[in-house]
Model the fold of this input.
Amino acid sequence: MSERKPYPSDLSDEQWSLIEPVITVWKDRHRSVSGHQGAYDMREIVNAILYQGRTGCQWAYPLPQKSATYYYFAAWRDDGTDQVIHELLRCQVRERARRLEDPTLVVLDTQSVHAAAGVPASTTGHDPAKRVPGRKRGLAVDVLGLVIAVVVLAANVHDNTAGIALLSEVAVNAGGTVSKALVDQGFKTQVVTHGAGLGIGVEIVQRNPQHKGFVPQPKRWRVEQTYGTLILHRRLVRDYEHRPSSTSSRVYWAMTHVMVRRLTGANTPTWREAAVAA
Done:
């Protein structure tokens, strides 16, 4: 690694060892014509992606150079390497929790977030219900709050479209093991019908009309917890990405960061803890 001050987001040796094999295989498959392996330390490239995701800084700021970091981020986004790393870690977290690699139940939900200036208008919209101009992120998570599928759409797209896309992704990503999905009342019968065609029973969880304010619903609260965890990664507070696929990649990298820490028993200090220490 290059000589610089370590960041809290940097991977430890133990954490890097969980990711390195996938990166090494990728590098072996992408040699230059001359056989040169490149001048950049792959651990530093991954650290730069994680640093940017955690801090929300612009592309010109991460180390090493912007061009190298973006090159690998885009390459791993486009060929699915970011998802390969994510899926490998997800299976390990589930196994450590004494569960099968793939779930039988998922929870679906969507979140509308503001889009930053410069994000193409053709990929954004206005969510009239939440009064948010930007994009809509849809997640399918398991009962541990681990991400099974991600979709990114314009904010004006109905939850039904997001739900249908998520169920299709779940059917592929979870190896056909999912038999039930829980959704809220924003999803309608089209999602239930689509799920039935995939062999997934969709249950629309009804809110108890006697409950006032926010009341966590059994199992469904896991997806809300995951959204809360993702927002700790400032690059996801708004949607800064020109491509929706880049936003999906940011979600996978954020969850990768969460899972390597979970697997190694590490925690990132919050700003509150830092203030107390000072």
Notes: The domain at 101-237 is CATH 3.30.420 (Nucleotidyltransferase; domain 5). The longest helix spans residues 244-264. Residues 74 and 167 are 26 Å apart (CA to CA).
